[in-house]
């Protein structure tokens, strides 16, 4: 009995498939019996649909265009932002902020005694700058000249010079912008550098001005020697 | 015997009554599946007449052949080779063989029963 049942089930499925296939192959061809007016009406309907579709397409295309322009603008904006950011980082922009003023001058007692005033050693200035950076200074300028990562301080013809500007007029004033000026002042005052300056007959005074400091932009051109721009995109 | 014929008829009527439509692209697969189904069906009838019928073999063969045939056709479409022709050929040949065997067996049975009737007379 069970045998017969399964066999019947299979025949049922086969019959079903056969009927569907038969239906599929013998789909009647619907002949077109519309007259002229009906055809015209249908054509009109289709034309309306077409007009609606074209309208929709133009709307969507307008949207796409607006998105594209927005995208391009935002790209430009991002590039501009990045450029400004990089310029700020490189020290090519004026910068304002809270900070400290470090002034270095010869010890007055020595001048009174008639001793010859020597120039500040470039090594000392570099060490002071490094210490200040270590203690949290963000940007530094010396005697109105911005100190940047490619700046050089060295002895030229017996005079200490930074990027070619002599640091011989006293007091040599260094301005540093930092988030926490008081802390920077305390840490510089507490460092051993003060003693080194004293050995060279200089005294260092550190003030925290009440207002904001303005550091000038770096004025020279920055020479990039070992980097080249990639011209055609590259592979990111 | 009659139950299976009845099932076939029910299946056909159901197929005609139900408005079940298959996309035209798949009509090839369905035709091959139908062929496979009939091949298995006649194979089953022959096996029954030869007393070799095994239900498991029959049912699994039915579904497996259908799926295999459709799969072969599908592969053929994607390879650009008319593989469904192979299926049609194989199933067609087997169909004819099975039907011929069924005919012979039936004739044999009929002739035996006629001889018996003659003897009885």
Automatic annotation (TrEMBL), chain B:
It comes from the Bacteria. It is found in: Cell membrane. Belongs to the sbp family. One of its GO terms (cellular component) is plasma membrane. The chain crosses the membrane at residues 29-49, 56-77, 83-106. It is a multi-pass membrane protein. It holds the Pfam family DUF1290. This is Integral inner membrane protein. Keywords: Cell membrane, Membrane, Transmembrane, Transmembrane helix. It comes from Peribacillus simplex.
